Amino acid sequence: MNLNLRIWRQQGPQDKGRMVTYQVTDVSPDMSFLEMLDVLNERLTLEGEEPVAFDHDCREGICGACSMVINGAPHGPQKFTTTCQLHMRTFSDGDTIDIEPWRARAFPVVKDLVVDRTAFDTIIQAGGYISAPTGSAPDAHAAPIPKVDADAAFEAAACIGCGACVAACPNGSGMLFTAAKITHLGLMPQGQPERNSRVLDMVAAHDDAGFGGCTNAGECTPACPKGIPLATIGRLNRDFLSASRKRSDAPAAG
């Protein structure tokens, strides 16, 4: 396969950035998208040019690092697929492929296709944990959990924090990510003591980080490589309203 690549090149956060066109030849249909970029970077290095910077780690669809927009779609055209799992047989010989970074105020570009997703870490630090010591792992049947709750918690826990939901959202909202992290803890018995403070603190951290507000546009779920459902945001909203009401009803200190 021979392909035309239009790739976003940006030296740093203050650089204006631009699309640069490259041709790659003899691309195997069995290559992953990142392997194709590796081939391009090897050629650029041999020619004395600066390789394209892009994020990657596990290359198994687990870590969420391979964040890039391909032909206008986060992670590319295939549903439930990360960039590292996308194979070149998805494209045709002679195709032109546009490759860009996530574009959101909360995800500033570091260089080329690499963005700073520290804002997600800030949200997790605000409440995405259970602070109560639990000791050694209990027996699986020690705390019975309704199957519907266990399934929903597992579904939310599948979130890999890649940020595709933010890139797809017209508002640049990270609410699907935040909802997934709140939901998978909020459905478990161990997460109940901090359930109210967790949702209030994590939503506040989301807003403070510069993410946009959720208006239920629904673009996040189709872009999510793990298929986190939109209903997860509804669960967050219910928890948020309940926690806000309980906080407002609490007696004033002093």
In short, what is this structure?
The protein folds into two domains: 3-110, Ubiquitin-like (UB roll) (Roll), CATH 3.10.20.30; 117-249, Alpha-helical ferredoxin (Fumarate Reductase Iron-sulfur Protein, Chain B, domain 2), CATH 1.10.1060. It has helices at residues 33-46, 118-127, 147-157, 164-168, 175-186, 195-208, 220-223, 231-249; strands at 3-9, 18-24, 69-70, 73-74, 96-100, 109-111, 114-115. It contains eight helices and seven strands; from the N terminus they run ββαβββββααααααα.
Secondary structure: elements and pairs:
Elements: E1 3-9, E2 18-24, H1 33-46, E3 69-70, E4 73-74, E5 96-100, E6 109-111, E7 114-115, H2 118-127, H3 147-157, H4 164-168, H5 175-186, H6 195-208, H7 220-223, H8 231-249
Helix pairs in contact: 2-5, 2-6, 3-5, 5-6, 5-8, 6-8
Keywords for this entry:
Ubiquitin-like (UB roll), alpha+beta, 254 residues, single chain, Fumarate Reductase Iron-sulfur Protein, Chain B, domain 2, 2 domains, elongated
